[in-house]
Amino acid sequence: MAKMDKENKNDIVLEIQDLCKYFPVKKGIFEKKSYVKAVDKVSFTLKRGETLGLVGESGCGKTTTGRTILKLYNPTSGKIIFNGQDITNLSEKQMVPLRRKMQMIFQDPYASLDPRMTVGDIIGEAIDIHGLYKGEERTKRIRELLERVGLVGDHINRYAHEFSGGQRQRIGIARALAVEPDFIVCDEPISALDVSIQAQVINMLEELQEELGLTYLFIAHDLSMVKHISTHIGVMYLGRLVEKGTSEEVYSKPLHPYTKALLSAVPVPDPEQAKANKRIVLEGDIPSPIDPPPGCRFKGRCKFAKPECGKVDPELKEVEPGHFVACHLY
Ligand code: SF4
Is ATP-binding tagged as a keyword (predicted)? Predict the structure, then answer.
């Protein structure tokens, strides 16, 4: 497996412009149509070898963002540009050759692997769909992939239920790698695993990224999970990106009140530092994503809210080079 070419590091792999995914809500025939605005005007760019850690509470739209980028959902509006090609309106058939280059690792390693298939068939399925290897070569490739993710080549004939959660997630990673992707959506890949296994899986994903020049969108519900792997962080709240920047900037100088609250919940190893850090507890519920009211969507939970926040929806603005926030305080 070749090391990433240095000159390729500046290639833009993914460009997302004002991406929206709205789901219609069923109502009576005389009632006005409503929409769940699951993803609302999300924009970001990812270069080869970068990782965007996308964080936010359950239901904020991060998984829908990942699935819409992979065109598992058709976007409502906006643009998805992958390796320089606008794929927003490609049909399912036109997407087939591109599917190889855009893969997903799922959250639940128990549900995502078919218990009736052997590990060899699970990993080999995508190889067959794309006609990449046949016969002996196919078997050799599957064994190589199993070994690369820390399993044994002889596991090829076993069934998924014979493995632990961590091992199943490794099988899921091998399945994603089988078709030599450029970009992988990692949808909370460690949150269902034991804490002791989480670091191993993260380290492996980092090594694979370095070796193969992979680009990741790494979805997680809190900032501690994405800290080590992310070059950039995007914080989502109710379908919107409310802050984005390099990991260094967002962790050392969070701007949005919501990001500050999420960061205050990240465990700190130093007990003195932990005592000094005050946990910010968010009060109030997340509002409904169905036709959200005007103004800032965070206003009901924000102690800094001012009258303007109830009227004007804050735009995502660059307040320092590369550091963007959507908040009227800046
Ligand atoms: Fe709080 Fe207003 Fe900023 Fe929203 S725009 S986060 S309500 S200060």
Answer: yes
